[in-house]
Design goal:
globular; 6-stranded parallel β-sheet; alpha/beta; single chain; 15 helices; 375 residues
């Protein structure tokens, strides 16, 4: 087909005129042969073929190609729940375009054998609610949430490796983000996580719920419908907490998300709130990104030196699975032991849902201590 058209626009215009109407009405794919394809080819192509989703490989940072992506999204007249799978040249920022057209992101460039795994019936799951412990003045209550579970190839690879290879898993409380869409894309994988979950594990939603969206940019006309879908998928995945990005804390749109999500706690990925409690839902900063061993210790040692010891404090930290994955739980455990040696009795590590339950109970008794910034 090379040389058939004189420009990229001419090629995609032909595709939209001749192929688009035969494609899946709910799925797009941002897939292309990157310069690493010879050594590490993308594995999503089987699903693109099987589902007959329209595929494009365009650079949304280029004005001309960005306009083409807009044309592709606009032509489909998509309803909330539509998705773009794969990955983009710009990474996450494809959302700036797709969210305007009711299209969420399911990052999945190296996700393998999706046409096989998605051929089985959906399954739903349950977890217990968070349990509060007694919060004491001077102590710092900390939860840990592993990224990047909204990306289903991380669920299939890096996070799976943590769960299978780390001998210390189950000896330290850790939350693992997963894609709620695994109920459909790979119910066996989600079931595997549930069947291998220890009492020290929690499964929770990656950003921003059942799809990756920038909540502040999502089409207003479709937002309420998206929120209803979000509630349904999070509930059937059994998630009690989740991460939320780029939804502008303090705005009506943020609170609509919180109130309709069904979650007990939300870890906000922006730095516009430290901690809040809205209608019984704890909103906590997602916290420092951890890239290597020592990052947890440094972040918490700094807090131990600065925080008022007359109050209890609550926080979360966010190890990046792509670089912290190998023996990740063992690393966290070593850092926690080092903190206990240097700051005895200051830190209490809890599962994310137990941390937000403890914060909720504490701030119900001491509302004057809630440290939100937009007070």
């Amino acid at each position: 087909m090379k040389g058939r058209w004189d420009s990229v626009r001419e090629a995609y215009t032909w595709a939209m005129e001749n192929i688009y109407d035969q494609c899946h009405k709910n799925i797009l794919f941002s897939v292309g042969l990157r310069n690493d394809w010879l050594n590490s080819p993308w594995t999503l192509y089987d699903y693109a073929v099987a589902s007959k989703g329209f595929c494009f490989w365009l650079d949304d940072s280029d004005p001309q190609e960005s306009a083409l992506i807009e044309d592709i999204c606009r032509k489909g007249n998509y309803r909330p729940g539509a998705i773009v799978m794969g990955y983009a040249k710009s990474g996450d920022d494809l959302l700036y375009i797709t969210n305007k057209y009711n299209i969420g992101y399911v990052v999945s460039d190296y996700y393998a054998n999706a046409s096989f795994w998605s051929s089985y019936p959906n399954k739903s799951f349950k977890q217990r609610s968070g349990k509060a412990v007694k919060a004491e003045p001077g102590k710092i209550y900390v939860s840990i949430v592993f990224s990047d579970g909204d990306n289903v190839q991380f669920d299939q690879n890096a996070l799976y490796n943590i769960w299978t290879e780390d001998k210390e898993r189950g000896k330290f409380p850790v939350g693992t983000t997963l894609a709620a869409g695994l109920q459909e894309l790979n119910p066996f994988l989600l079931e595997w996580y549930y069947s291998h979950k220890t009492s020290q594990d929690e499964l929770l939603a990656g950003p921003s719920g059942y799809q990756f969206i920038y909540g502040r940019d999502y089409n207003e006309e479709g937002y309420e419908e998206w929120l209803a879908l979000n509630h349904k998928w999070l509930a059937s995945a059994g998630f009690k907490t989740g991460c939320l990005w780029h939804t502008s804390y303090g705005t009506e749109r943020f609170y609509r998300y919180a109130e309709t999500s069904g979650l007990e706690g939300i870890f906000n990925g922006d730095d516009d709130v430290e901690l809040d409690c809205h209608q019984g839902i704890v909103i906590m900063n997602q916290g420092n990104h951890l890239f290597k061993e020592g990052d947890l210790y440094n972040a918490l040692a700094d807090k131990a030196k600065k925080l008022d010891t007359s109050k209890a404090h609550f926080m979360n930290l966010y190890p990046i699975a792509a670089v912290y994955a190998q023996q990740g739980v063992a690393k966290l455990k070593r850092e926690a032991e080092r903190l206990e040696k240097d700051y005895p009795g200051r830190f209490v590590f809890l599962l994310p849902k137990d941390n937000v339950a403890t914060a909720k109970k504490y701030y119900k008794r001491h509302p004057e201590y809630i440290p939100w910034k937009n007070r």
